[in-house]
Design goal:
309 residues, alpha/beta, 8 helices, 14 strands
Length: 309
């Protein structure tokens, strides 16, 4: 078996350290040299020749996070690594997976092209905003799901009137998958947007009175949808409302909205580091899951058994 070396970009250092520890090793030595104008240059301070190199970096904004990952992949390729696996817990620009109006880019495809040009041989990511992004790559993509770690936590809550909810029509597939596994019902929020990140109207499809609701989504950005949905459900007689989102982007006034809302709890993973703590936010680590998949990939074992929904 080839030697495995794990490196991390600066954005995801905390999660990367947990993944490496769970894998039974430590992070490799990489230095990021920064010039006075902000330009930077990654440097591997140990040989990677002939190794299976795993580079961990979520590519949420700023764009430097993506550029740093690309440069580390390029450095590993030029240093004769045998395999280069980009572990992207959060795949940035995934919301730009198609042309939804004329004269706009397909950002997710552009990212895929850049990763391929840099020299990546495999991608490992979690809860893509759109499943079809896997088809943008000509290399294997291991698409993991946070449900593997979220569902045991949901079961531990012992909610007797559990109902899963989708915050919009596009998320019904995800909500149905959770509901089927948990033997629960599903409700859907129908929302009409004036523009991105701004909701004009929201309506409920389904019965929430007397139910303990969990809204499931792949990401929470401004938290406007989640908090508006939670308040609407409580107004319609729900016992409690929780939200569960893999990627905690939490931009703008998201933290304030969450703390001032009727949400009992927001459950997220650590694919993106939180910028501050909140008593309403519960973080569940995905480090053990990524470490387990890494071991299975390097030993050429099937990974399908780890998927719950």
């Amino acid at each position: 078996m080839s030697r495995v070396q794990i490196f991390a970009g600066r954005n995801t250092m905390g999660l990367a350290e947990k993944i490496a520890a769970s894998h039974g090793t430590s992070l490799g030595n990489v230095i990021i040299n920064t010039f006075s104008d902000g330009e930077f240059q990654p440097s591997f301070e140990e040989s990677v020749r002939g190794s299976d190199v795993f580079i961990i970096q979520s590519t949420n904004p700023p764009a430097d996070n993506l550029m740093e990952l690309l440069m580390m992949i390029d450095a590993a390729k030029r240093a004769s690594a045998r395999q280069i696996v980009a572990i992207m817990p959060y795949f940035g620009l995934a919301r730009q997976d198609r042309k939804d109006k004329p004269r706009v880019p397909i950002g997710a495809k552009l990212v895929a092209n850049m990763l391929a040009a840099a020299g990546v041989t495999r991608i490992m990511t979690m809860d893509l905003h759109a499943d079809q992004i896997q088809g943008f790559f000509e290399v294997p993509v291991d698409h993991l799901f946070a449900s593997t770690v979220f569902i045991p936590y949901v079961k531990s809550l012992n909610l007797t009137n559990l109902t899963m909810a989708s915050p919009d029509m596009g998320g019904t597939k995800r909500a149905n998958a959770y509901a089927k596994h948990m033997h629960a019902e599903v409700v859907v929020c129908y929302k009409h947007r004036k523009k991105a990140n701004e909701i004009e109207n929201m309506f409920l499809i389904g019965e929430v009175a007397g139910k303990d609701i969990i809204i499931v989504d792949d990401m929470v950005d401004t938290a406007g949808t989640l908090t508006k949905a939670a308040d609407l459900m409580m107004e319609n007689g729900a016992n409690s409302v929780r939200a569960m989102a893999t990627h905690a982007i939490l931009s703008g006034e998201a933290y304030e909205r969450i703390e001032n809302s009727k949400l009992t709890e927001l459950i997220v993973s650590d694919t993106i580091p939180l910028t501050k703590n909140s008593p309403k936010i519960k973080v569940i680590s995905v480090a053990d899951l990524f470490a387990d998949i890494m071991k299975k990939v390097t030993s050429h074992e099937s990974i399908s058994e780890v998927f719950i929904v």
